[in-house]
């Protein structure tokens, strides 16, 4: 059924009494969704008895799992259609049903600080002539919604997501594959100019000391933003030269002291943020961790 674009006086009065093109498009969209919900065209809708029409509007508003801001636009479009066709309703009563579904800031307020941290890292990509990558890692106990923050950006077109990596992931030296195939495997070109996401880094920083040294050495180099060059007996020298800008958001339960000690010897490359997150399903009650910040050169996370 064509619920909105049918010719008729009701539609003519509704659409041609709106001056702004943007408002017209918004109202038309909101009205089409409402008419689809009612399975009626606009002429039939406005001919309904006042009480029946009011009940339909109330049920529709209650069914929507959206913020009050968007509900106000919907009510405004329906109200305009009614007023332009001399349909009188109790709008003071109807506006009482513009209730917002809980946003993340209301239902999980402790997520706001880490989300702001993540957005700040992502936004560095928009700074003109900025060629120095930034790496930020969220720290918190298990089941404290750290991964939720990382997952927010997973579907963004300029993001690259992985659950884990090794030191040789960025630049492979596997002898059994041709150079053309190795370039398709290497992760460094895949994260260039991207928001690099890794939801679990605890296992990366818990590796044996020699492997951990290699990982931190590689990370230190690529976080200079100037590519990477490595040699091996299998493939000789392989390299990616030039500007390799990216920003990195990761999450981990904690970083062991030995990892902090190693990172302290190579300079400020990784930055850590321990937000105030609730650990779920703890015996007794939720445990609220204090808001703390952790610096790369310190072997702990001091309270602020």
What order do the helices and strands come in, and which of them pair?
Blueprint: H1 9-16, H2 21-38, H3 42-46, H4 50-63, H5 68-83, H6 91-94, H7 104-107, H8 112-123, E1 134-139, H9 146-152, E2 159-162, H10 179-185, H11 188-191, E3 195-198, H12 202-205, H13 209-222, E4 227-232, E5 236-241, E6 247-252, H14 257-264, E7 270-274, E8 278-279, E9 287-288, E10 292-294
Parallel strand pairs: 1-6, 1-7, 2-3, 3-6
Antiparallel strand pairs: 4-5, 7-10, 8-9
Brief rundown of the structure:
By secondary structure, the chain is α/β, with parallel strands linked by helices.
What features would you describe in this structure?
The chain has 304 residues and is an alpha/beta fold. The protein folds into two domains: 93 residues, no CATH class; 189 residues, 3-Layer(aba) Sandwich (Rossmann fold), CATH 3.40.50. Helix content is 41%, strand content 14%. The strands form three sheets. A six-stranded mixed sheet has the order 2-3-6-1-7-10, covered by helices on one side. Strands 4-5 form a two-stranded antiparallel sheet. Helix 2 crosses helix 5 and helix 13 crosses helix 14. The longest helix has 18 residues. The C terminus is likely disordered.
Instruction: Provide the spatial order of strands within the biggest beta sheet.
Output: 2-3-6-1-7-10
Structural class: alpha/beta
- Beta-strand share of residues: 5-15%
Order of helix and strand elements from N to C terminus: HHHHHHHHEHEHHEHHEEEHEEEE
Ends: how far apart? 61 Å
Q: How large is the count of helical segments? A: 14
Categorize the overall geometry.
Answer: elongated
Main beta-sheet annotation:
6 strands, mixed
What is the name of the CATH topology of the largest domain? Rossmann fold
């Amino acid at each position: 059924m064509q619920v909105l674009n049918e010719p008729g006086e009701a539609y003519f009065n509704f659409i041609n009494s709106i001056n702004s093109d943007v408002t017209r498009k918004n109202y038309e969209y909101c009205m089409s969704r409402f008419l689809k919900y009612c399975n009626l065209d606009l002429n039939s809708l406005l001919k309904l008895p006042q009480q029946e029409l009011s009940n339909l509007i109330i049920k529709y508003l209650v069914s929507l799992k959206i913020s009050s801001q968007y509900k106000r636009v919907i009510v405004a479009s329906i109200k305009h259609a009614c007023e332009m066709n001399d349909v009188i309703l109790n709008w003071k009563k109807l506006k009482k049903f513009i209730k917002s579904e809980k946003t993340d800031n209301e239902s999980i307020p402790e997520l706001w600080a880490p989300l702001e941290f993540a957005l700040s890292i992502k936004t560095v990509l928009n700074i003109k002539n900025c060629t120095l990558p930034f790496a930020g890692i969220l720290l918190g106990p298990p089941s404290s919604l750290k991964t939720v923050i990382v997952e927010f950006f997973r579907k963004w077109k300029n993001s690259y997501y992985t659950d884990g990596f090794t030191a040789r992931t960025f630049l492979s030296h596997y002898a059994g594959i041709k150079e053309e195939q190795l370039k398709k495997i290497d992760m460094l070109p895949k994260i260039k100019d991207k928001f690099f996401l890794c939801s679990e880094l605890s296992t990366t920083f818990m590796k044996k000391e020699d492997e951990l040294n290699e990982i931190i050495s590689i990370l230190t180099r690529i976080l200079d933003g100037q590519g990477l060059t490595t040699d091996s007996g299998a493939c000789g020298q392989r390299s990616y030269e030039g500007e390799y800008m990216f920003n990195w958001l990761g999450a981990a339960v904690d970083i062991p002291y030995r990892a902090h000690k190693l990172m302290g010897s190579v300079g400020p490359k990784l930055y850590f943020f321990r937000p105030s997150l609730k650990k779920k399903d703890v015996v007794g009650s939720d445990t609220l961790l204090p808001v703390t910040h952790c610096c790369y050169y310190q072997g702990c996370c001091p309270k602020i």
